[in-house]
Amino acid sequence: MAEAGAPACCKRKRENEANGGSQDGAGAGASPLAGFQLQRVLGDSAREKIIFLHGKVNDESGSERDAVVILEKTPFLAENITDVLHGDPAPQLQMSNDVYSTYSLRPPSQLNEIKTTLIFPATEKHIKKYLRQEVFLIQETGEDYRNITLPFIESQSFSLQWVYNILEKKAELDRIVYENPSPTDGFVLLPDFKWDQKQVDNLYLIAICHIRTVKSLRDLSSEHLPLLTNILNEGQDAIRKRYAISGSHLRVYLHYQPSYYHLHVHFTALGYDAPGTSVERAHLLSDVIQNLQLDSQYYQKRTITYALRADDPLLQKFRDAGKC
Ligand code: M7G
């Protein structure tokens, strides 16, 4: 079991990546973003300063393919604030009243970065994932899981290629923070692609287990307790060493339903209101461990409540079965 990668320093890691240090080809060649033709806005949030876009991009053969682009304004870095305030052009006064005034600042481009995620080519399922939709709560019994959900996820799920690329060290190798290489009880810990790694306030890592037969919470039994306790203890330890954040400041949880059916665990900074932490989706790893210690078959038996989007074919399956 070894802590992998360069010494702890988000900033240095970033410079590395900017210089082409990433081993998954990031930065090589022209970006498909340059040819992105906007089709529609799938969703946005003024509060989170994020927008999800569907567009078309020509692939290498010149055929038009679907693409999803996510643009997100990044959090402020305390070390840059002086440059933002004192920058050129000077702040423009918008209004002034008594002790109150508002300004518009136009910081230099290097202080005005936008985190951009591209999914290309994107499938219909990717587009739907980011399309804002009405959601409905489902109560899935163990039997519903076996009769309705399992056949559905076996027939159509997102590709796990990106997960296997990480486990096989074909992608994101230089981003690995920690690895326990045991094929049964081991995992790889690395930054989630939602995190730009510029500040720890919105820290977000994922632990991906080596074992490939566990799809989700539903497949867990007491035989997985060594794996789960390794993820919790060694994951927290590695994050404390790398980012100086203690276990008591981390939210460690699984999603049910996940988007990707290969067991993985989310680590987010407790003070960060990370997407996907609502009670109808997030299951704290420490609770999962305790439940399995009480009953090895806990997650095969219990009813789990979660939300499904209006256009999710799984919701239709539950409706067809008269379950909602
Ligand atoms: P999930 O619970 O299956 O679904 O989590 P969610 O995406 O709806 O939350 C999968 C996690 O893996 C998410 O937090 C994603 O941001 C993250 N993720 C997805 N992809 C495709 C990648 C990737 O290629 N690299 C990394 N590092 N993280 C990813």
Automatic annotation (TrEMBL):
> Which Gene3D superfamilies does this one have?
HIT-like, Scavenger mRNA decapping enzyme, N-terminal domain
Which Gene Ontology CC terms are recorded? nucleus; P-body
Q: Which GO terms describe its biological process?
A: deadenylation-dependent decapping of nuclear-transcribed mRNA; mRNA processing; RNA splicing
Alphabetized, the UniProt keywords read:
Acetylation, Cytoplasm, Hydrolase, mRNA processing, mRNA splicing, Nucleus, Phosphoprotein
EC number assigned by the record: 3.6.1.59
- Single annotated GO MF: RNA 7-methylguanosine cap binding
The record's listing under InterPro entries reads:
DcpS/DCS2, Histidine_triad_CS, HIT-like_sf, Scavenger_mRNA_decap_enz_N
- A Pfam cross-reference name: DcpS_C
Region annotation Disordered: residue ranges?
Answer: 1-29
Q: What class of enzyme is it?
A: hydrolase
Q: Where is the active site?
A: H264
Which reaction is the catalytic activity of this chain? a 5'-end (N(7)-methyl 5'-triphosphoguanosine)-ribonucleoside in mRNA + H2O = N(7)-methyl-GMP + a 5'-end diphospho-ribonucleoside in mRNA + 2 H(+)
Where in or outside the cell is it found? Cytoplasm; Nucleus
* Annotated positions binding substrate: 162, 172, 192, 194, 255-266
How does the annotation summarize its subunit structure?
Homodimer. Associates with components of the exosome multienzyme ribonuclease complex, such as EXOSC3 and EXOSC4. Interacts with NDOR1.
Family of the protein in this entry: Belongs to the HIT family.
Which PANTHER family has this protein been placed in? HISTIDINE TRIAD HIT PROTEIN MEMBER, M7GPPPX DIPHOSPHATASE
What exactly does this protein do? Answer: Decapping scavenger enzyme that catalyzes the cleavage of a residual cap structure following the degradation of mRNAs by the 3'->5' exosome-mediated mRNA decay pathway.
Which protein, by its recorded name, is this?
Answer: m7GpppX diphosphatase
Species name for this entry?
Pleurodeles waltl (Iberian ribbed newt)
Specify the taxonomic lineage: Eukaryota, Metazoa, Chordata, Craniata, Vertebrata
